[in-house]
Amino acid sequence: MRSQDIDGVLLIDKAPGMTSHDVVAIVRRRLGIKKVGHCGTLDPLATGLLLVVLGRGTKIQDLLMAEDKEYTGTMQLGSTTDSQDSDGEVVETRPVPELSREQLEEAFQKFHGDFYQMPPMVSAIKQGGVPLYKLARQGKTVERQPRFVHVFAHEITGVNLPDIDFRVVCSKGFYVRTYAHDIGDSLGCGAHLRALRRTKSGRFNVDNAVTVEELKTHERDWIASRALDLPSVSRLRGA
Fold first, then answer.
1. 43 is catalytic
2. Alpha carbon distance 206, 200 (integer Å)
3. In this structure, what are the phi and psi dihedrals at residue 49, rounded to the nearest 5 degrees?
4. What CATH number does residue 146 fall under?
5. pLDDT of residue 145
6. Backbone torsions φ then ψ of 45, nearest 5 degrees
7. Is 3 inside any structural domain?
8. Would the pLDDT of 56 be above 50?
9. CA distance linking residue 207 with residue 162, whole number of Å
């Protein structure tokens, strides 16, 4: 791959506290190319795998966004927030009862397979051309359409109440913070998402990703060499 002609996909391990657009801006600046996009927004709270498409790679952006995702996360029981994660304002607190492993498993099982999920007001979905989060900042709440989603696999990986660690494999368009909120509601005490990390997207794994620090400090040619060319992406996807 010639350094001046970069077409493909760069796997980035997004750092906390930055937006997906921040990552795209850094890639664009470091590589000196204009055609850069990302596949699947990660909130500032979240870390982990962000697929960044380069050059002609932007033509397969929709295909990559449509693939299943895997996340690990932590939900905190006992409080709900207006954004459904720890970046929001607490709107309600409730005592957390003694919960058995069976009760927790039962609550998670309710959100397995096919179901509808109501997108949060603090989201990038647009209504009338305006992102919902901008309407939410104005104190507005509008009617949203529920989304049909699918959870392929889930696992409770740790319990230290009020925190529950989990892993989930889900379809595109899935809101993990809404997942945490809904499970907390099912348990009767409420919950919000405290931490989130995307570990996989389709067949791409965060273990093979470039960190934001490497992106900022390494030379352009090194960054370009880490990009997967389009034939490699096609082989990885099994296309």
1. yes
2. 6
3. -70, 120
4. 3.30.2350.10
5. 81
6. -60, -35
7. no
8. yes
9. 29
